Amino acid sequence: MSTDQQKPVPDAADRAASDPAARPMGIGQAFREIRKGIVVMWWAFFDWVAVVSWKALLVVLPLVLILGGGVLKLPTLTFVLIVTSLIVKVVAGGKRRAEVAANQAIIRADTEQLERSLLEARMEALQAQIEPHFLFNTLASIDQLIQTDPPRASKMQQSLIRYLRSAMPQMRDGKRPTLGQQVGLSSAFLEIMSVRMEGRLQPVVSVPEGLKSAVFPSMMLQTLVENAIKHGLEPKPEGGRLEISAEIVDGQLAVHVIDNGMGFVPKAEGGVGLANVRERLKALYNGRAELIIGVPPGGGTSATIKVPYEVAPVPV
Amino acid sequence: MQPPPPPTAVVADDERLMREQIVDRLKEAWPELVIVGEASNGREAVALVQDLEPDVVFLDISMPGMDGIQAARAVAGKVHVVFVTAHDQYAISAFEQGAIDYVLKPAVPERLATTCERLRARLKHEPDPMNDLLAQLSQRLGAGGVKPREYLRWVQASVGANIRMIPTSDILFFRAEDKYTRVQTPTFEALIRKPIKALIDELDPDEFWQIHRATVVRVDAVEQVSRNFRGNQFVHVKGRDEKLEVSRTFNHLFKQM
User: Fold this and answer.
1) Contact B244, B237 (CB under 8 A)
2) DSSP structural state of residue A66
3) A162 and A83 within one domain
4) Bridge partners (DSSP) listed for residue B224
């Protein structure tokens, strides 16, 4: 072991010589440095022996034998070194290798997790796009109301601000979004749309107060609502009803958007929006969430997102 | 000599506020223009144009039932058309090349005044039938034009007492069972009434292959194809235990490359 002990000494001395600031180092500190060096080297040696294959070890050991026993004339030390290596190899080899494999697996899992959340972030940004059509039409309506009905114009503008505040990606606070926030965003959107569409849109929002603190991914509910209006109600001359509701089913949070509009067209591309929701659910929940599209008894379309029920941490 | 009758117009937009806005601002920009009718969708607009024979029609592009482009096609050559839109890159670039005018919402009074001036000049001529331009617009906006062949993207199926829309990308295979066709997804199965024979015509041939009189499988869901001692092929589907027989007629699908 003394080779191991000798080595760090010139090291520390070298450092002390080359680095004038380190020169007034006390004996005690130098000693601690040396000990630290030894510990590091021991573990490096230990790791190497534990991980290296038996074949490599059996090639290296005779070399050590020749070098230490023959050339340096330190037979006892060499013998101790070889025996130590073999014992370390036998005792720690398997465990150490498992540890290394586990570490690599963790790194891989971290990378996968990172890739997944990166993908999710990119898809969320896509999903969060505010339709220029919607924005321009709404501004045009506000412009008209300013002339004819200023109080209503002001109300509509406030709804637009509330909508933009939560729909613009830059405005989100980075915390995990809750169902309450998402329902608030869609309610603001529905208020605007019912001013514009008048009697042609009858929105109903019935989400229990107690579920509003549940974690729910951003912009997914809004995608369902926009789809229901764009494909279900807007194309229908007489319009119809749109209902947002939420419940707990078998420990899962189920959020429904139901309309009695035109109904689903099986040959339609299905919309980029829905495919995006599906992909995001996969990335976020890895099979523990789903999007279900159905046909309610009276016709129209029902869309349900089911995610694991989880309450958002209360901000302190 | 009698003065010529005042010019007339019909305004069509599905949102009342938007109709009001166009009407109000037209009154300022062109006081002599008489608005003879207002429509809230394309069909109403076409009917009003046919009944009232106005000189001009202002058509919102996106309207329920029949959209503005379809309505314009129906009345082309009978009336001068001005399109109204909130935002449509394609449409605007098409208008700028063509003879048709457009108004962006919200209608800016100065811009509307220019439109009215151009309209006054155009009223002296016969309305343009706009054939090429409308064809181009329908194609770009995907409205009323001829669309490429569309395949089934969703299958409407009963699961228990409910009706569900299942995206075709979730389906592993279809299999004929008695009177019904079974739709198998990784997590559940559903039944539809449509027979395999009718289904195969509506499915994208790049996405689904028929491998048997009774079986259609999604190509991406095939894990491997095995062969028994008699040379019959069987398709193994990802995540499922059952093997789907390939009938001899369809053996060629899985010939070795």
Assistant:
1) yes
2) I
3) no
4) B236
d(CA B23, CA A202): 27
Whichever domain contains B26, its CATH number is 3.40.50.2300
AA letter at A196: R
| ipTM for this model | 0.74
Same domain, A260 and A154: yes
B40 interface with A at CB cutoff 8 Å = yes
Residue of B135 and A236 predicted with greater confidence: A236
pLDDT band at A97 (very low <50, low <70, confident <90, very high): confident
Contact criterion met (CB below 8 Å) for A260 and A299 = yes
**Chain A interface with B: residues with Cβ < 8 Å:** 132-133, 136-137, 139-141, 143-145, 147-148, 195-198, 200, 234-237, 264, 266-270, 274-275, 278, 292-295, 301
Q: How many structural domains does chain A have?
A: 2
| Residue B128: domain span | 8-141
Alpha-carbon gap: A136 to the closest alpha carbon of chain B (Å):
6
pTM of the predicted model as reported, rounded to 2 decimal places: 0.70
Question: How many angstroms separate the CA atoms of B183 and B186, rounded?
Answer: 10
Domain co-membership, B158 together with B133? no
pLDDT at B140 over 90: no
Domain that holds residue A55: 2-109
A124-143 pLDDT, tens per residue?
A: 777 767 888 899 999 999 99
Taking the C-alpha atoms of residue A183 and residue A168, their distance in angstroms, rounded to an integer, is 15
> What's the rounded Cα separation, in Å, for the pair A244 and B126?
51
Encoding tokens for residue A42? 């021991």
The tens digit of pLDDT for each residue in B162-217 reads 888 898 988 999 999 988 999 999 888 898 988 998 899 889 888 999 999 999 99
* 8 Å CB contact of A136 and B105: yes
Query: DSSP labels for B104-146?
Result: ESSPPHHHHHHHHHHHHHHTTSPPP--HHHHHHHHHHHTSSSP
In a domain, A70, yes or no: yes
Q: State the pLDDT confidence band at A9, using cuts at 50, 70 and 90.
A: very low
Nearest of B231, B234, B197 to residue B214 by alpha carbon: B197
Q: Which residue in A133, A142, A144, A257 has the most chain B C-beta atoms within 10 A of its own C-beta, making it the best mutation to test that interface?
A: A144
State how far the Cα of A19 lies from the Cα of A31, in Å rounded to an integer: 17
Classify residue B48 as left (phi > 0), alpha (psi -120 to 50) or beta: alpha
Looking at residue A174, what is its pLDDT? 67
CA–CA separation, A264 vs B155, rounded Å?
10
Backbone Cα Rg of chain B:
28
Average pLDDT over residues B213-240: 89
Domain closes at, from A109, A143, A176:
A109
